[in-house]
Amino acid sequence: MKNIDTTSSNDVANLLNNASNIIAITSHEFKTPLTAISASVELLAARLHSNQQMDAFYEKNLSRITTEIFRLNNMLDEMLTINTIMSGRMTLNKQIIDVVQLLITLRSNYFADPEDTRSFELIVSGIPQCIYADHNQMNRIFMNLVGNAFKFSREKPPVVEVDFDHHQVVIRVIDDGIGIPASDLPQLFQPFFRASNVDEIAGTGLGLSIVKTFVQENNGTITVDSIAGEGSTFTLTFLYHSDSL
Questions:
Q1: Residue 80 burial (10 A CB sphere; 0-12, 13-18, 19+)
Q2: 7: CB partners within 8 A, 6+ apart
């Protein structure tokens, strides 16, 4: 019986490893044509502008192509990330991080000129201090939370509050969006779970699971308060650099 159990365990391990490799290879292979398509769209847009042929029709449809490419790339990144997490191959590269500067850069690079002309409001209180965390993971955390706040909000721009408390920084991402039903809150951070009121909004259900993993890997906490139809507040805490050593 022991030999059978061992063989069975090895088979399962090999199967999971093969599945993980297939996901990684397939995701990378999808990224190659997407990069080529994106480059072609940029060249086409540049040619239309230089020939003074760019009109509302071309601009609208080229913008739509670019948006869909961005969405597909995000989906592939989420698949690759969750695959890395579940296969135990995730690595950390921690460094001293200025949270406020990270958010300012994020806003400038990704949320300064969205199509609906909104940008997120950044409110800072207390004496700024640095944290010790993985820069790429922190960037992904805020990209996801702020991106969701835009995606699910209505008229008001999302608000990001950064409160430098005594031993930790408290960050709140606030929106006035569709909110999350109370029955969905306990499962919100589970992989592939999507709230019951977002059927018409695109997404993989992986983003918040990745966010929670990254927060925990960087010795932080994350909670959510939400009322369906009234909006959501995601609250994160991270110890300061001096207190995390």
A1: middle
A2: none
- In this structure, are residues 130 and 165 in contact, taking their beta carbons and an 8 Å threshold? no
What is the C-alpha to C-alpha distance for residues 168 and 235, in angstroms, rounded to an integer? 12
Question: Nearest to residue 133, comparing CAs of 4, 20, 7, 244?
Answer: 244
Report the greatest alpha carbon distance in the chain.
Answer: 76
Torsion of CA 111, 136, 72, 158, to 10 degrees: -30
Number of H helices, E strands in the chain: 6, 7
Asked whether 139 and 175 are in contact (CB, 8 A), the reply is no
**What does residue 188 show for φ and ψ, rounded to 5 degrees?**
-60, -35
**At CB < 8 A and 24+ separation, what contacts does 56-65 make?**
63/115, 65/37, 65/41
**Cα–Cα distance between 230 and 179 in angstroms, integer?**
6
Q: Rounded distance, CA 177 to CA 226, Å? A: 10
* 143: helix, strand or coil: helix
Stated as kind and residue range, the H or E segment containing 82 is: helix 56-86
CB 76 within 8 A of CB 27: yes
Q: Is 83 helix (H, G, I), strand (E, B) or coil?
A: helix
**How many Å apart are CA 102 and CA 217, to the nearest integer?**
18
**What tens digit of pLDDT does each residue of 109-165 get?**
877 655 555 678 999 999 999 999 999 999 999 999 998 898 887 777 899 999 999
pLDDT of 16 reads 47
- How many whole angstroms separate alpha carbon 27 and alpha carbon 25? 6
